[in-house]
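Notebook entry, structure prediction.
Reason for the run: the old model in the group folder had no record of what sequence produced it. Starting over properly, with the input documented here first.
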Amino acid sequence: MYHKINDLPGNILSVSTAKFEEQVKYLKENYHVVSLKDVINYINRGYTFPDRSVLITFDDGYGDNLTNAYPVLKEYGVKAVLCIPTDFPEGGILPHDEELPIPNPTLSWQEISMMRDVFEIASHGCSHRPLTRMPLTDAKKEIEISKRIIERRLQLAVKAFSYPKGSILDFNDQLEEDVKDSGYQLCFTAIPRKNSGRFNPLRVRRYNVENFGMVYFNCLLGGSTDIISVKDTMIGYKTKAIINNLLTIAKK
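New structure, fully documented this time:
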């Protein structure tokens, strides 16, 4: 799971353009990169996923997904999923960006449409507020309305949803039922684990990719970093940064 691809300092959600290209090249050469359509087809038909399958996703719909990520993905012939919170195309600042000194603009609907040869589009709710922290009726509306907005704006069927924030505290059984009832076939969390065997398609787990080196990236893909995945905390980030530095030094 990616968010921003840029070279701006001071944001743990950003991966540099150079490192992103290095990561995509590595995935292309060493993994079986699947599309959202592939994943849904495999699940619906009961197929076994090819060994080392990986799906690339982006949350939030930042402008640099077009300027920096899109050209790299297109060059390597790789598909990805773009999860859009519908309140923010055409302007607006995402809640977790409000204190950042450098603005991170979001994509417009026209720009999102331009990217559809590479990006498959999913919903990320409307307001990017965690659904468990609002009344259930409001959460259900975000799940349903965001789907309708994207389908109307882009003239496509939206088959996947991504929980805002996505930690174990940010969804529950009732929300999962609402996602299913709204017509989604796949739902992404931010729980950092592999999806093995016959996993729940409405609780797809994802690894958050940060601006770390290839040794750590390889460990992430292999599941070696699961034990230190402290979701959405500075302690978790600092722990991963220390381990990344140690791995980089050891490689040298």
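Summary: The mean pLDDT is 89.
The old model has been moved to the deprecated folder.
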